[in-house]
Design a protein that fits this description.
7 strands, 13% strand, globular
Length: 262
């Protein structure tokens, strides 16, 4: 079974899905699954990532830098010119820096990580909502992290930004109802370029991670392994689909039981 193409959760073909951060490991897996089900997929990501990452044939590309509001506005203007409505939005984009204790964390680093992970996601949701309200059974899935729920040393900027994503998800679920459902998934450790600096920052898809020992991590996870990108596909498709028609404002943790440990 190929979890990208044989997922039991099916979305209606020809729906329009926007994946922000679709060039990263989790984003690419989601893009591939949506495309395989016949959806019309648009990817927003950094121009350098769009140039470097092969995407399935027919997937549209729009360059954006989530840290810059003018860039987000321009990207959604380009999207609306081609698609007057949108059915699904998946916000996957995110990154962090080298681990730093709070005493050593500079405000410039803190602000940059919040701009890319939280403010940028807010801007995407803000500009997507008018298109989603014109869509069919519209839904948003934001990608957060389990780190927002644990005291992970060195992650102050990233953890607080993603905790903000969890709060934003709940606020949007209240504001966008009943037309648009809004949920999030919170992955645990996933073996992607994120562990090696981030795809958009030159991190490789494989090789030794910078921030975690995969074998050590796997031994601490009840299900006995680190996550892989395909582990995130089913939960995202479920939250987008009519199977989750009465689910909104939730943060679904996908971590092999790791949150119980932490």
């Amino acid at each position: 079974m190929n979890p990208l193409t044989d997922c039991v959760v099916r979305l209606p073909a020809a729906r329009i899905a926007l994946v922000v951060g679709g060039c990263g490991g989790i984003g690419l897996a989601i893009v591939t699954a949506l495309h395989a089900q016949g959806l019309r997929v648009v990817v927003m990501d950094l121009a350098s990532s769009l140039q470097a990452r092969p995407l399935p044939d027919g997937v549209a590309r729009i360059a954006v830098d989530l840290r810059e509001e003018f860039s987000v506005i321009a990207a959604f203007k380009a999207l609306a010119a081609e698609h007057p409505h949108l059915d699904y939005l998946v916000n996957v984009a995110g990154y962090t820096s080298a681990l730093q204790p709070v005493e050593e964390l500079g405000t410039a680093t803190f602000d940059d990580i919040h701009a890319g992970n939280l403010r940028g996601m807010l801007l995407c949701c803000k500009h997507a909502l008018p298109l989603l309200r014109a869509g069919n059974d519209a839904a948003i899935v934001n990608v957060s992290t389990g780190i927002a729920n644990i005291g992970a040393a060195g992650y102050a900027a990233y953890a607080t930004a993603k905790a903000g994503v969890n709060a934003l998800t709940r606020v949007l679920a209240a504001e966008a109802a009943p037309t648009v459902r809004v949920n999030a998934i919170a992955p645990g450790g996933v073996d992607t370029a994120f562990l090696r600096g981030g795809y958009g920052r030159g991190g490789a898809d494989d090789g030794p991670p910078l921030r975690v020992n995969i074998d050590d991590y796997a031994r601490r996870v009840p299900l006995g392994r680190i996550g892989v990108t395909t582990d995130m596909v089913g939960p995202v498709l479920f939250l987008l689909s009519s199977a989750a028609a009465y689910v909104s404002g939730q943060v679904l943790h996908v971590n092999g039981g790791a949150l119980m440990r932490d």
